[in-house]
């Protein structure tokens, strides 16, 4: 387990449903961190999906008193430019991009460490995600707090439904949306 010299932790958040159990586990009721949420997800497409997720998170953060930083913008063109040549490696780019952004923000704003709610998803590649977080942390001079929250995934999803939060159907990128529909097409 990583020892964090301060109780302040920047938590990269991919969406409101994934944030629930992570925030509970890491926050004052769990490990005792003082959390600040960090939204930077230029991979989410289309724009209406980006807004739905961002706005649901903003509302939820307000309900639970979580400070939230909305960082970056909708990033269709830069994301597509970076991954169009090899969509199969898009997750590596996406992890590196978002973990790098969180690590730099943490370093510039006095957070000794950061983590991500992506770690709750059983659909994410944890080893690649962990490597991206640790690499970004080294480059920025902060720590990456790895926790395997996958056992809390169903609990967090159930809480999100109970709260009436927006529940997405795919990870966010246009390629995962395509894969979702390809599974149901004849």
Kindly describe this structure.
- The structure is a single chain.
- The chain has 186 residues and is α/β, with parallel strands linked by helices.
- The chain has a single domain (8-184), classed as HUPs (Rossmann fold), CATH 3.40.50.
- It has seven helices and five strands, in the order E-H-E-H-E-H-H-E-H-E-H-H.
- It has helices at residues 16-26, 47-64, 76-83, 90-108, 126-140, 153-163, 174-184; strands at residues 8-12, 34-39, 68-70, 113-116, 143-144.
- Strands 3-2-1-4-5 form a five-stranded parallel sheet, with helices on both faces.
- Helix 1 (16-26) crosses helix 6 and helix 4 (90-108) runs parallel beside helix 5 (126-140).
- It is globular, with a radius of gyration of 16 Å.
- 40% of the residues are buried.
- The model has no long low-confidence stretch (mean pLDDT 91).
Topology:
Blueprint: E1 8-12, H1 16-26, E2 34-39, H2 47-64, E3 68-70, H3 76-83, H4 90-108, E4 113-116, H5 126-140, E5 143-144, H6 153-163, H7 174-184
Parallel strand pairs: 1-2, 1-4, 2-3, 4-5
Helix pairs in contact: 1-6, 4-5
Main features:
single chain, 186 residues, alpha/beta, Rossmann fold, 5-stranded parallel sheet, 7 helices, 5 strands, 50% helix, globular
Count of distinct strands: 5
Instruction: Write the CATH architecture name.
Output: 3-Layer(aba) Sandwich
| Main sheet specs | 5 strands, parallel
CATH class: Alpha Beta
Helix and strand string, N-terminal first? EHEHEHHEHEHH
Radius of gyration: 16 Å
What is the typical, i.e. mean, pLDDT?
Answer: 91
* CATH H-level homologous superfamily name: HUPs
- Report how far the terminal alpha carbons are from each other: 47 Å
> Which fold does the CATH topology refer to?
Rossmann fold
Instruction: Give, in spatial order, the strands making up the sheet with the most strands.
Output: 3-2-1-4-5
Shape: globular
Structural class: alpha/beta
Helix content: 40-55%
Strand content: 5-15%
Q: How many domain modules?
A: 1
